Structures are given as C-alpha cells and as structure tokens.
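One thing: can you check what follows?
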Amino acid sequence: MRFLLYPFSFIYYIITTVRNILYDYQIFKSKKHKIPIICVGNLSMGGTGKTPHTDYITKLLEKKYNLAIISRGYGRRSSGFKYVKLNSDPLDIGDEPLMLKNKNPNTIVAVNNNRNQAVEKIINDHPEINLIILDDGYQHRKIQASIYILITPFHNLFYNNNILPFGTLRESKKESKRADIILISNSPNKISDKIKNNIIKSINPKKHQSIYFSSVKYLNYKSLKDNSELKKEDYKDYSVTLVSGIASNTKLLEYVKKQHDNIKILSFSDHYNYNEQDIHKILSHHMKHKNRKKLILTTEKDATKLKQFLSLIGNNKIYYLDIEINIYKNEKFNKNLTNYVREN
C-alpha cells in the first residue's frame, strides 16, 4: 500500500525542486554574511547525527575562532530568538541545543527559525564572534553559508532513499551537489576499503567535494544527578532499563546488549517530551528487575528532558551514555575543514 504515497512524493519533489532552481538562479535571494558560516545538515528526516557532528566541529575550531552555534530548536514550544543557557528549559529551546550547550558551556548557542536574523543579532550582541555553525541548516537557503557539510547515515544513504512521504528525503538527492563535504555517519567501526569505494562510486562526488566516514564512539555512563562516571568494568553487574526518544536506537541497543545481560527497553518517539506519567511507567519497569544492582540508562539528548524529574526518580540510579564522533582519517578532515574556513 506504500506505493499510494508516490503521487504525493512527486508533488513534493516538484515543489522543492522548483524552489531550489529559483535559489540556484538567484531569483530567490540568499544572504551572505561578513563572517564564515559552516552549515551542517542532511537531506533526510532525523537520525543522521547532525548534532554530534556539530559538537565535533565546535571542539575542533573553538581554540582558533570565537564561534557561535545556531539551531532551529526543533520541537520547542517557544518561538523567535533565544540564547541557550545551562539552566534553560529544554521545552523552550529544544533538547539538542541544550545538549550542545551542556557539552560546550563556553560557546554561544542560540535558537531561531530565522537564521539570518539570528546571525545578525549574535554579531551585534557579540562582535567578537568570527565563525558561526548552523546545526540543521541545509534546507535553509535564505542564508548563504561558506561551507556545506552534508551528513548521510550508512544504513540509509541518501542515494538509496526517496522523497517524502514515500521516503524520508526533504528534497531531491541531486541537491547533494551543494555540499562541500559529505560525511557517511554511523558507519561500522570496521569497514572495508571495498565498501567505502562502492559508496563513493555511488555518490559520484563532484570535483569540489570530499567524502569522509564517521562512527559513534560510546564513552562512559554519567550520572544524571552529579555527572559522576560508572566504571566500565562494573557494567555487567547491573540490570538496565534503557530509555530512549531518538530517531533510531538500533546501534545504541546493540551496544548496551553487549554490556548487560538483563535489559528492559522503553522506546519513545524522537524529541519526546516526557511527563510524570512516563516517569512512573519507567520506574515501574525498572522495579521489575530482580537484581539488587540496577540502573536506568538513557541518551544524552533524553537526559536534558529527564533531568527535571530527578525528584520523582528519587534514589534510583539514572545515567546517560556519553558519546563522541570518530572520523576516519580525521587529520585529513580536520585540515580540510580548517582550510575551508580560513579561505572563506
């Protein structure tokens, strides 16, 4: 029955393609700003790893530049421009911007649907800023970025995908041509050169494009209460209630299953807003573990929203799984990106 969605995908394709043509021929205008702007985005809906890659780029460049991050703040209940603070309510500014702020407390993070307006306000408020990163800005063509980084997940590469609603693409796969760097995210830790070469051949990059592969590295469990770490050698002692509200928890689940013998799983929709009833449900599942040593484990993104319920969670142990991005040939990537910024 899925084929019935195809006519709607064709209509969506026509609309988005015409829009892009109007921008390509400068009938619709894109605004260029006086400082370099890195745009991190994708062609598909959710689950590609944009925000962790934004964190990677921030940590790479923050020593050389006074940078700021702008996000749309997906799912927030507020509107307009807002600076993200460490004590911001995730419902007001979004879970991913708050996660970025927590990981980069000295970096300016702001949310606004209007990216041009956000850039101008940040530059006006903080004239020392000389680099801006747009988190999830690939389709925001009203702003002209200096560098475009397109992220596509290994398990659902854009060239195998289809336009919404038949597939999950926001625009035609041909729009990958706008990217300067294409990152294949969530790649296996061990990937053969043959597979890499086949993917590169399928993408058929333009002369100006570079392709890199990245994977997720799982770090330590950190307490949601005091950020203390649980030693990895102690993981096996614990039964786990895994709570996640992300686009895809497949790789997360694979990892956690390797660490623990007894796991209960509670999955919620991406960017889920938890309520007290959900917390009682989580605790109910958690208490069913017979093991004396047990903990609730969640993602770093979900932790931003679960933190407000610590009083309800009480003495129960709750941790989040810290992650970082590992880019294959990272020295080459780092040099390539640094050169892009310096030249633009």
Summary: The domain at 2-217+326-343 is CATH 3.40.50 (Rossmann fold). The chain is about 35% helix and 25% strand. The two ends are 48 Å apart (CA to CA). The mean pLDDT is 95.
